[in-house]
Amino acid sequence: MYNCGKLRNISFPFWGEDRPNECGHPLLHLNCTNDQTYISINDIKYKVLDANQDNQTLRIARVDYLQDLCPLKFLNTTLDPELFVYGPNYTNITFFYGCHESNPFLNFSPGRFPCTMNIGSINVYVYTQFEALGPSMLCNTSVVVPVQVTLSLLDIGNVTKIQGALTDGFEVRWIAGVVECEDCKKSGGVCGYDLNSNQATCYCKSSDSGSITCPSPVQGKKSKVVAVGIASGIVAGILLGCWVYLQRKKRIVEQSKSKDLFILPSSNGTVNSTTNVSSSISSYPSSKSDSVQKSLYFGVHVFSYAELEQGTKKFDPSRELGDGGFGTVYYGNLKDGREVAVKRLYERNLKRVSQFMNEVEILARLRHKNLVALYGCTSRQSQELLLVYEYIPNGTVADHLHGKRTKSMLLPWQVRLNIAIETAEALSYLHASDVIHRDVKTNNILLDDKFSVKVADFGLSRLFPNDVTHVSTAPQGTPGYVDPEYYQSYQLTDKSDVYSFGVVLVELVSSLPAVDITRHRHDVNLANMAISKIVSQSLQELVDPYLGFERDYAIRQMITAVAGLAFRCLQEIDMRPSMEEVLEVLRGIQYEGYDAHKIKQVVDIIRADEVTLLQKTHYPFSLDSVSDKWGSL
After folding, report:
1. What's the predicted TM-score (pTM) here?
2. What is the DSSP letter of 205?
């Protein structure tokens, strides 16, 4: 056991002091100095304040922030997802360094403190929200540090309060080898780590004293002798394995004849089992009580229904995160400590099974920082079809713009622009991967604690054939976001997503929902309302007053540019830009930042495009008046 100061009886997966490295994970070394324990995680040194072996938690504090707010190196707090997950109820504090004093967004920070560093004297600005802004705020760098306590705006202005929160640290839960260790303890063994195979292992009791100990070199030699005896059973095992293989092959053939849910035809007409392991998928510890869980469908992990039922408290209604056209999503906790979102499909019929397969197949082969990650699903033997995603804690963009979170925190313009860019990055990646999302809307754009985007809900997505320009299918999607030409022609293309994204851009500018029957009948549909306001030179009537459109020249120019881009996305299909072009324009708007002269150049370019587009559009207005109006903004 590891003992240091007040920390007592710490065991697997940690090692250090009297515990040799075979007793713990190589990256989880504890160091005892003056009765204080320290651990390094991703090159950052932490002081271990407390440890609870029963619930696998540590409370740690960053050493570089214990004395003041001016570290020697600017390093963000990150955890290895295979070793740790964050504990509940933590809050991120973000420190911004080297900020340009003319940055108007700095006025939102109540915390501003002098910082003397090797580069000279600078100011540090403190926030508890909007961690995603970073360099876009005209600051050289930012550092995110979690804390366990909630700080008010008044607290943020008090360096003593901030320092106290940093000193109290935050909680993490270790997940490395937890399940394996539980099985090991049940067998009467002791948990350890095999440095050769680089995985958790189980050691037996010492035959001499009856006590549980980690292996010594002598024990290692004994294990080799034992291995010789074990070898005699390998031949029998091979014979048994051959029999199992033949039986399994027979079963697969039978399943293919009965149109098994997870056996799909390959391009050459042969049958391929989708239980093949995908090398790009990380393997997570999971319960081994169900043999089905050893399978992978489309390369993703298969969970038992019982495990997910337990993790969601039997699908407790109080854990509902959302409700859509295909199923209800519940908050859940896996045995390894991960927080998840579990989608429970409403029905188990052929249509639902098809949507289930579609989402698993698409998400299994996609990897992007702005796409929600699929952790796994249930098998065809499960009594219900369930999909398991990473849990994104900060709600949807719709929640923050015009939903349940609008009262708690309003999104500044820079956050909204960042959301637009990251959403465009995700959609551009999908289109490059021959995938059409088909249901782009603010309710399907999730936000994490740093206000970074995670695009979700691929139940309507379609894999797009490489040799065609469109696919014919009955219109599906959400009213207010569906491409009108898709309704008319039944032809789905990647430009259908572009139209929906144009509606999202208008929502970001206006904070209005895509459809609102309480508005004037001509404005019920937000896309129509936006086009009307732009054409009638009344963009200011569309923009959310909170964003500072009237009082801040730079923000006014950026919003105007984004509105112009949205206008292009909402045009007829031949005049819409691609998502790659949309992303390029948005990045240009953000890159120019607060340089008003350069922003004006971007706006002028977009305005010229608008004139060309409007000349092809039948609206009763003067092109000159529109150009003059936009040029004066």
Report:
1. 0.53
2. B
Percent with pLDDT over 90 in the chain = 30
What digits encode the pLDDT tens for the residues 93-138?
A: 888 887 766 655 555 566 788 887 665 677 787 876 544 444 445 6
Query: First and final CA of the chain: distance in angstroms?
Result: 69
Locus of tokens 């992303």:
583
Q: Of 90, 166, 73, 94, which is closest to residue 136 (Cα–Cα)? A: 94
Q: What's the token pair of residue 566?
A: 């949205």
448 membership: H or E segment, kind and range: none
How far is Cα 476 from Cα 183, in angstroms, rounded to an integer?
A: 47
- Amino acid at the residue 11: S
500, 524 contact by CB (below 8 A): no
57 forms beta bridges with 52, 173
To the nearest 5 percent, what fractions of the chain are helix, strand and coil? 40, 25, 40
Tokens of 575: 């005049």
Active site residues: 439
150 vs 560: CA distance, rounded Å: 37
Instruction: Look up residue 461 and give its DSSP letter.
Output: -
Amino acid in the structure at residue 64: D
Written as six digits, the tokens of 131 are 């961690």
Which residues does 175 contact at the CB level (< 8 Å), separation at least 6?
56, 82, 83, 84, 85, 284, 285, 336, 337, 338
Burial of 342 (0-12, 13-18, 19+ CB in 10 A): buried
Return d(Cα 200, Cα 273) in angstroms, integer.
30
User: Residue 78 corresponds to which tokens in the numbers above?
Assistant: 């990150």
Strands 339-345 and 386-390: antiparallel
Which ranges of 63-158 does DSSP label H, i.e. alpha helix? Answer: 153-156
Q: Contact, 302 vs 377, CB < 8 A? A: yes
